[in-house]
Amino acid sequence: MTSRIDTENSNNLTTAPYGSWKSLISSNLIVGDSVRLGQVRIDGSDVYWTEGRPKEEGRDALVRANADGKPSDVICAPYSARTRAHEYGGGSFLVTGKYVFFCNNEDQQIYRITEGGTPQAVTNGNGLRYADVILDARRQRLIAIREDHRNADHEAINTVVAIDMATSEEIVMQSGHDFYSSPRLSRDGATLAWLSWDHPNMPWDGTQLWQAGMMDNGTLAAPQLIAGSATESIFQPEWSAANELHFISDRSDWWNLYRYRNGQVQALHPMAADFGQAQWIFGMSTYGFDELDRIVCTYMQNGRSYLAMLDPQDGKFETIPTPYHAIASLQIGKGFAAFIGGAPTIPESVVQLDLHTGQYRALRKSTTLTVEPENLSMPEAIEFPTEDGHNAHAFFYKPCNPAFQGPAGSRPPLLVFNHGGPTAMTTATLSLPIQYWTSRGFAVIDVNYGGSSGFGRAYRQRLVGKWGIVDVDDSVNAARYLIARGDIDAEQVTIRGGSAGGYTALCALTFRRFFKAGASYYGIGDLTLLVSDTHKFESRYMDSLVGPYPDQKQLYFDRSPINFTDRLESPLILFQGLKDKAVPPNQAQTMFDAVKAKGIPVAYITFEHEQHGFRRAENIKRALDAELYFYAKVFGFVQADEIEPVQIENLAPTNK
Question: Once rounded to an integer, what is the mean pLDDT over residues 311-333?
Answer without folding.
Answer: 96
